[in-house]
Specification:
521 residues, mainly alpha, six-stranded mixed sheet, two-stranded antiparallel ribbon, 60% helix, elongated
Length: 521
């Protein structure tokens, strides 16, 4: 029988827990279609990046999309290229980000406190329903949260190394690499929030004298070298990009009140507590009297995590718009503080109440994900594409009537941007909040020529249809109530129907026949 030494048993145990964590976080990623609009939008942009071959400029329906930087799209498009398009590969970025986050938290807590606290922090994080769901959600929130986690932890390591008389500049260089990654993932908050957290922690722990060491020119140069080229390149290609990206999508959005998810100032605090139940109850066990017996390092970690949690919550509580995903960066701090509360109850044995906490948390994750899967499988675009995909060819043309179904191009594996058909003149004069119309209208200004080929009015559709290549078929998605305006659909039965969503296929022969009828004698 094979005997393992202590080091081998440790590696085996870590490998086993890693495999269980991957399975736990990833299993639901293949069980549900993309959620609209966010997952459909971001995965669709990554799919367009791959099919167009343009890895520099993110495109939404063939138009430059500059709401977010490209890191998420690069990772997702690369996963498509390496492993093929699927629901799992479309969610590889958040899954990997979540996995790296829990590993980083475990390493940090084990390194500076003890393995019991590290295990509790690890278990708390992976069983928090909010974290569990976000790990399988294809948007930018988990990616930027994971990158910020590394940035903050490495910056803290740098400060501690200085305090111990060591140089530790390797920590600072790595922190700058991750800070640049945060900027490439979601813009200025990738550097602003880590700076806010670390500065606040240094202030309350009386370490501000070390702040000058962060202005080491090789580290700053490395940050600029990694973070700035893409932004400068986009400004060079698209005049006005920097103003649009930084002024409109950072400062105006932060201060504005005409965006979705409008909530009161205090919204995030009770919601975060509720989304992290039942583990978050253990935060209430933290008492000043208990913390007075902590070691200096325990107190230091607690202050870091408290600044991490409070300052980011305050930052995102200021804007009127409060999407839930914005507070994902606080999850490691929330888990660490929760674990420190739990650790007081686990001095010599694992109490029953901790088992109950983790079992209840795991069941909450399973129940919540089951409900999400059940609801998601009713998504019209997914059901339409499931029926139509065997008939689709990569070179076919997608036509969307009056509603942008972000994910349909990905599901049908089409290579060309869809034609979005609606009354664009009316849409441009309406006051729009966050909507697909506004996104496409804003993108139009960066490439009017591409917009002329993809943003069509109903009167333009027939002409464009007759300009398709002879071997191209067309897929038309829309509401059957609007088909009277589209004579090409007359007498053609839909390939698939889901409630009030229809999908028609116009074969090359049917398109040729229609265009022949349209040609004047």
């Amino acid at each position: 029988m094979l005997q393992l030494n202590e080091k081998q048993r440790l590696h085996f145990s870590h490998g086993l827990w890693l495999a269980v964590t991957i399975l736990w976080l990833g299993v639901a990623a293949v069980c549900r279609p993309l959620t609209l609009p966010d997952e459909g939008r971001y995965v669709g942009i990554a799919w367009e990046m791959l099919t167009s071959g343009d890895w520099a400029v993110p495109h939404l329906d063939g138009l430059p999309y500059f709401h977010k930087p490209p890191l998420f799209y690069w990772i997702t498009a690369t996963s498509f290229k390496l492993f093929g398009p699927s629901l799992l590969t479309s969610r590889l970025a958040p899954l990997l980000a979540a996995l790296f986050m829990v590993i980083a938290l475990y390493w940090f807590m084990a390194r500076h406190l003890d393995k019991k606290t590290a295990v509790l922090a690890f278990a708390t994080l992976v069983t928090q329903p909010f974290f569990f769901a976000s790990a399988q959600f294809a948007n930018l929130d988990m990616l930027v949260a994971s990158i910020m986690t590394f940035t903050i932890m490495l910056a803290a390591e740098f400060v501690w190394s200085l305090e111990q008389g060591q140089s530790g500049y390797r920590y600072l260089l790595l922190a700058m690499v991750f800070a640049a990654g945060g900027v490439m993932a979601k813009g200025l908050i990738g550097i602003v929030l880590p700076v806010l957290v670390v500065s606040g922690w240094m202030l309350v722990t009386r370490r501000l004298r070390y702040i000058r060491y962060f202005f080491w020119w090789p580290a700053l140069g490395l940050f600029l070298l990694l973070a700035s080229p893409w932004f400068l390149s986009m400004e060079w290609q698209f005049k006005g990009f920097l103003e649009y990206f930084f002024i409109h999508h950072h400062f105006q959005r932060f201060a504005g009140s005409n965006f979705n998810n409008q909530e009161p100032f205090w919204f995030y605090l009770p919601v975060l507590f509720a989304l992290c139940l039942p583990a978050s109850v253990w935060l209430l066990t933290l008492r000043k009297s208990t913390m007075q017996s902590w070691s200096r390092r325990q107190t230091d970690i607690a202050w870091l995590m408290l600044c991490w949690l409070v300052l980011i919550l305050l930052f995102f509580s200021i804007p009127v718009s409060k999407p839930l995903g914005y507070i994902m960066p606080v999850m490691p701090a929330m888990a660490a503080l929760t674990a420190m509360g739990m650790r007081q109850a686990w001095q010599h044995y694992f109490p029953k109440c901790l088992w109950i906490t983790f079992v209840a948390a795991g069941l909450s994750c399973v129940i919540a994900m089951g409900m999400v899967i059940q609801h998601a499988h009713k998504t019209a675009s997914f059901l339409l594409a499931t029926k139509a995909q065997p008939l689709a060819s990569q070179q076919d043309q997608l036509i969307l009537l009056n509603k942008y179904q972000f994910d349909l191009m990905f599901y049908l594996r089409l290579a060309h941007p869809g034609w979005m058909v609606t009354d664009w003149r009316a849409a441009e004069h309406e006051v729009l909040d966050d909507s697909w119309e506004k996104e496409l209208i804003e993108a139009k200004h960066f490439d009017p020529q591409a917009a002329a080929n993809t943003l069509l009015t109903p009167s333009m559709l027939s002409q464009h249809l007759c300009q398709l290549a002879p071997e191209q078929a067309a897929w038309v998605a829309g509401d059957p109530g609007n088909t009277a305006h589209y004579p090409m659909l007359a007498g053609i039965a839909p390939v698939a129907t889901v409630r009030d969503h229809y999908l028609w296929r116009l074969s090359p022969a049917q398109i040729a026949q229609f265009c022949h009828r349209q040609t004047p004698l």
